[in-house]
Design brief:
Shape: globular
Number of domains: 1
Strand content: under 5%
Helix content: 55-70%
Radius of gyration: 12 Å
Order of helices and strands: HHHHH
CATH topology: Serine Threonine Protein Phosphatase 5, Tetratricopeptide repeat
Number of strands: 0
Length: 100
């Protein structure tokens, strides 16, 4: 409910549940929708996880490195060091850790 009311932290949490399939059907596109909602509100984790989701793609979610770079740039602008290009390029290159 908090996520639906616009709570960015709850939106990131719900995105994580959808990405992992914990308590809900695993759906990476739905995860991205929640991450992006949080990211659009300036939540750095929403921005970073949106970048990861788009940069990795898979399971019905199209890989879009350019869009991912945009999300990472927003997170980096807030001082989130893991969103620096030298880090995120490695994070989206297989093999990478997933919730599966």
């Amino acid at each position: 409910r908090r996520a639906a009311r616009g709570d960015a932290e709850a939106q990131v949490d719900l995105g994580t549940l959808h990405e992992a399939g914990i308590g809900v059907v695993q759906d990476k596109a739905e995860a991205l929708r929640w991450y992006a909602r949080a990211g659009q509100q300036g939540n750095v984790y929403g921005q970073y996880f949106s970048g990861l989701a788009l940069g990795r793609g898979g399971d019905g979610l199209a890989k879009d490195v350019d869009a991912a770079a945009g999300w990472f740039a927003k997170a980096e602008a807030q001082g989130f060091y893991m969103a620096a290009e030298s880090y995120w390029r490695e994070a989206i290159a297989p093999p990478f850790w997933t919730f599966e």
